[in-house]
Amino acid sequence: MKENKKYLYLVLWLANYCNLDCDYCYAKNNFGTEKMSWIIAKQGLELLDEKATLILAGGEPLLNFPLIETIYTYLKEKNFKGKIAIQTNGTLITDDIAYKLSKMHIKIGVSLDGMFDTNECSRGETKKVITGIRNLEKYNKDVSINCVLTGENIGSLEALVEFLYLFKNINGLGLDLIRITPKTKFTIPKSKDLYINLKKAYDKTIFLGNITGKFIPIREIEDTKQRLNLNYHSCNYCYSSIGQTAVILPNGNVYPCSSLVGEDEYFMGNIESKKLNSIILSSGKSLLCEKCRYEKICRGSCPSRIIMNTKYFNENSDCNLRKAIFKILEN
Prior knowledge:
- The chain is an alpha/beta fold and about 325 residues long.
- The N and C termini lie far apart (about 55 Å).
- The radius of gyration is 19 Å and the shape is globular.
- The model has no long low-confidence stretch (mean pLDDT about 85).
């Protein structure tokens, strides 16, 4: 039986459920009650290229923390050369878990959509999130923040930047544009609102950075800045665009992107079959990109977000975000 190829980007859904009930979550309709077993996780790890990136996610991965410890120990013994990261809602980071994570070479991303009232509206349990970040701070473990941008919270982005400077261990802010689902009450940010509020947030990082001596970068802006400085030639948007991503669920089912879990047409097979189909998503570019003056250096749009957002809302929000950032940096 032919063995599956190795992947450069592997995502393990350690738990197929979450302790929060975020309105806009694109994955919750596929949640069950399963936790990933070591048997499935080990089979998944066999697909890792030696320099790949491994993402521990879900659901909420910390609901299966013992498996995180097992995976980390296993990869350490194997002398794994790649990167390991975990994306969590942060509510379950107790003092004990924070201490254990601080001893691991794992990058930690925590989801936070804004100040207290804003985050309560979209995610909830904000006090627990802040406590989790503080617990990691106690053990000098750095954290990057991921904010889901919506039409409802874009106006408070600058306030979020100010808030992040109250923590010593926050080293970056990533912006994840909302993926529209049929039942969500949230909307996609308008183009003009993206520009105005991104500029305010970026200016605030520079202002506070000069005062404090610490700079908290906004991931998407820094990526674009680097592309401009190096006259970077665009390529495929992500590893899913070249068929190098595998997302593995607790039951062993595999998809090319977390956003497409449960979509039958993107089902790659089951990890135990050792006969995974190869699915390559779009490059993130379209015919309209050829007419754009940023085409040669822009990374394009998230392929799965294009699928989701144009399915329920006829607008390429990624394109609006990229153009806003280019305009900010040019000015």
